[in-house]
Structures are given as C-alpha cells and as structure tokens.
Amino acid sequence: MKKVKIALLGLGTVGGGTYDILTKNRDIIMERTGVDYEITHIFEKYAEQLEKHGADLSLQTLDIDSIISQDSGVDIIVEALGGMDFPVQVMTRALKNGISVVTPNKAAVAANYDTLKKAADEGHAYLKFEAAVGGGIPILTPIQEQLSCNHFTDIMGILNGTTNYILTKMLKQGQSYEDALAGAKKNGFAEPDPTADVEGIDCANKLCLLMVLAMGRYVNPQQIPTKGITDVTMEDIQAAYNRGCVIKLIAHATLNEDGFNYYVKPEEIPLDHPLASVSNEFNAIYLDGDAVGELMFYGKGAGALPTGSAIVGDILAIMKALQ
Amino acid sequence: MKKVKIALLGLGTVGGGTYDILTKNRDIIMERTGVDYEITHIFEKYAEQLEKHGADLSLQTLDIDSIISQDSGVDIIVEALGGMDFPVQVMTRALKNGISVVTPNKAAVAANYDTLKKAADEGHAYLKFEAAVGGGIPILTPIQEQLSCNHFTDIMGILNGTTNYILTKMLKQGQSYEDALAGAKKNGFAEPDPTADVEGIDCANKLCLLMVLAMGRYVNPQQIPTKGITDVTMEDIQAAYNRGCVIKLIAHATLNEDGFNYYVKPEEIPLDHPLASVSNEFNAIYLDGDAVGELMFYGKGAGALPTGSAIVGDILAIMKALQ
Prior knowledge:
The structure is a homodimer. Chain A is of the alpha/beta class. In chain A, 41% of the residues lie in helices and 22% in strands.
C-alpha cells in the first residue's frame, strides 16, 4: 500500500491544528483507516511556526511549484493560507494537475465554486471542504453521503461563532454590543477586523456551500440578501425574549412549493426550537429532509483542533478513495 | 455500470419506509450517486404489505435461499425482520456468501457483533447498521469516517424515543408515568410490550454499538449496568427541576484517566447542557473528542422514513464501494 503524501499550505491556527492531529493521533488514524501517510512539504514563511509544532524544519518551503506541479509527488494539499486570489490560483492549478485539495476557506470556495469543481473534474482530483461550514461539525459530508436520499426543504444555521457569542452575552449578561465584541476579541473568537463576521458575510459564504450541496442550487454569496448584527439593540433582544424568543443570526434557505428562498439576518427563534439553546461560540445547523425529518448538528464552529478534525476527516476520505 | 440488486427482508414499518424512499426519491439518489439499482426480492409473508406500498407482487417470496445463497445475484439485503435468532442466522449466511447486509436491528447486532463482523470479513462483504442508533441521525458513519481522527472520551445519549417522550410529558404536562406511557402507545412511539424501552435494554444495545465504534471496546449489552425509568416519580422530576436539572434516561460511556466506565440510567442533566432541551420522541447523541471537542447530533430516533433514510444511506455507501 502506497504512502500518501500530504503538503500543508500555511501553518497558522488551522494548519497547525491539522499538523498536530496528523502527528499526535497517528495511532488511531492508522488503526481505523489502514492507510499510511507522511507530510512532505510545509509552505510557511515563518520557521517559528514549524518550531512551535515540533515540525522538521527541512519540510519548510516557499516554492509553490515544488508542491503543486504535476510531478511533485504530492497527493493532497491542505490550503490553510486564507485570503482569496493566491489560494484560488494554487487550488485550481493543483486540482488540474491531479492533486486533491482540502480547505477550510469558505470565502474562496463559495466565490469560485464552479471554477474549482471544473478544475477537480479536469484533473480527476478530489476537492473537499468539510471544515468550511461548522468547523469540526460533520455536516457537508453527511449531507452528500448518509443523507443523500433526502430532498432538503429547510436549512437554518447558526454559522458564525463570533456573532453568536456577542448575542449570547447581550442576552444573558446584559452586555452592550461593544463590550461583547471586545470580549469575543479577547477570547480569540473575533478577528481584529470583525467586519465579515458581524456583517453576516461569513454566514453568507457558508450558506452558499450548504445550499449547493443540500439543495443543488448555486447562488453567489454576493447575491444572498445579507444583514448582520450591528443594528441589533438590547431593546430588540429584550422585546424578543418577552415574546418567548431569542434573536440569533440565522442563515436560512427554503426550497418548497413557495420556491427557493434564502437570506442571512437576525431572526427571532422560539425558545423551544432546537437552535434557541445554541449559545456562546457554538454553531449548529438545523435541516429538514423529506425522509429523515428534522435534524440538528451542534458543535464548535472554529478553533485549531475542531477545524483540524474536519480537515483530517477529509484527508482520510481522500486517502481511502486514492487506494 | 452494473445495476445493484437489493432484497428487502420484511416490509413492515422500517422495510416499508426503505421501499418508499428507494422508489420515490430515485431521482436524487441516481443524480447524487450515479449508481443504478433495483429491488429484486421482498421477503414478506403478507401480500397486503406489498400492496400498501405499491410494490410489484411478483417480488414477494418466502424462499430465503433464493435471496442469500451464493448464486442468488443479490448484492445487498436489508434485514428489517426484527427478532434475534432467524435474522442473525440469515445475516451470517448472507455475509459469508459475499452479500452485504444493512440492518436497523440493534439487539441482533449488539449481541452478535463478533460473529457478524467475522462473517463479513470471511465473505468480503459489508455490514452496516447506521439506523440501529438514533434512527435517521447520521452518527455511526461520521464516527467511523469524518471523526475517525478523534479519541472519544465521552459519549452521552438520549437513545430511546419512548422513554424520552414519557419523561417529557411527566415534566411538562404533569402526567403520571402510566398516562404518559399510554400516550406514547397511542402515538405509536411505544411497542405494545414496552419492556425493552422502559427498562433501558434498548438503550444498552445502542450504547454497545456506540462504544465499539467510537471507543474500540466491545461490551456485551447484558454486561452494561442498566436501569430504566419505571421507578422515576413525579417527585424526583420536580426535585431535579428545582435544582436546575431535567431527568433523562442517559446511556453514558467515558474513557479517560479514570478508566472505561459505562451504564444506562436516569440521570439529572443541567438545564444549560445541550441534551437538556431534547424533548418528546427526539433522540440526541453528545460526544466529546480530543480534536473536535463537544458535538451533538439531534433528530428522530424512530419512524418509517427517518429510519429508512439511514438504511438507504447505508445502501448507497455500499453501492458506491461495490462499483
């Protein structure tokens, strides 16, 4: 059995988590999948990042061609660079050259879905992005596999940990929007520039991916009506609560006799709905399928190890398919 | 591409739901998997059952050899007969003869796990039983695939819809145990003889399957300390609620520095725990993995179509593997 060769592009939070799982949990990965693997390249500017994770410095490279050219020998790249233009270029070239791609980069995949799918088809390579929605929660793969006999009529997601943390603190501790945002930054949930989170853009990217996989309809995330949480006031939250509801930033898509509808916006969720009790930085995806009925998947939507868990899950699926 | 041949054994609630999904949702199944299939045999005593689902009466047979002998041409059987001795015999023979098996029969698989696994290995066939735990909720496959890089330290499940319905009605509507059980029977959640449900036996079978797949440890269900809900009084429920808790019938396994521990019993769950809001006939499985952290999967633990969804998911996975 061939040893699968993996290149990590970026050894920041997510790349580092992926590296740690691949090295520390090697025992159960080998035992459960029977597939052997090695990390052959780490595309990363800062040697400190490799040192931090105990990675062999000889793996460090900034020569992208040595990784994604047709004769590189690499089977799978993990694109954890972030950003848009360079990663999309790299993923497209790799896929066309027959190298499979795993990425948590929701913005890049959502905006370039067709291009990337075509490149994957052209190169007979796999493109997987389970970590792009719901972090560690297995959702995109179950939709495409175990649940693929369902027509999905309803998708509702709490898909952004930062905004859910802020709304939870405003409701439960009476914090102002500004204090809650500061707390989210302090706890590492919010980016230094939280615009994509609080304006709902991150949710729109994730909803785009859920819709195309669960409902078979691609909508460019820029075409999804999107409203964030910056206008939500303490009075709104209190008034909703008095009506037996909590306000959550909801990514919502429905496909039924009324047609295909979708948006991202703050919405009142009745307290007895399964999404109502999803608090703090947790994410959850609620689905309704014509066979399975109501389902909800709940877990950590971000963080080094949860996101790394989903990336490694994708790597393992590709490794098995490559055997 | 070869047409996969499927035999349904039993066309009761679960077999009927499976038949309906395979026929009514054929469009998306074909589109998403690219695999073609046909139902070649229905092992069922009552012709009315076939008529009820619009199945071709020429498929009806009670000749088990024509289905599970080596030269039957059948690729996959769905064992939805229920019971223990006959189904185990049939599944074992089929697997040894290279015919893959999908079953929701938790009791049969839990008690005979080694025998069935060995038969599958011997015949190079697949044995899948996603529907055996949590009905339609995808849980066993995600544990073995997308989450397989995790060491699981904690599993807590609300795995039985009947008992969860009874406890919910006792708490929320002040019904007596007897009235709530009668309501569960009336609504079709409880069996005419509810012993296996209310005594926790059904939960022990399901916990056995979760433990062997998530933690790699097989424990015969009869060796799992098991207590049902028959002794839970209204006073217990009220006292727990006054302490900020709800009583749920919990199947619990932990594997950590304190060793490997497991049981089924009524347990107090704090109201802010994700399992606390799982009400009525719904099921949920809460897991903690060293990479992914806390996860919860929620949905319908029983019923024709939810259970059928999980069975069809297993059939599709086997069909793809057989190509």
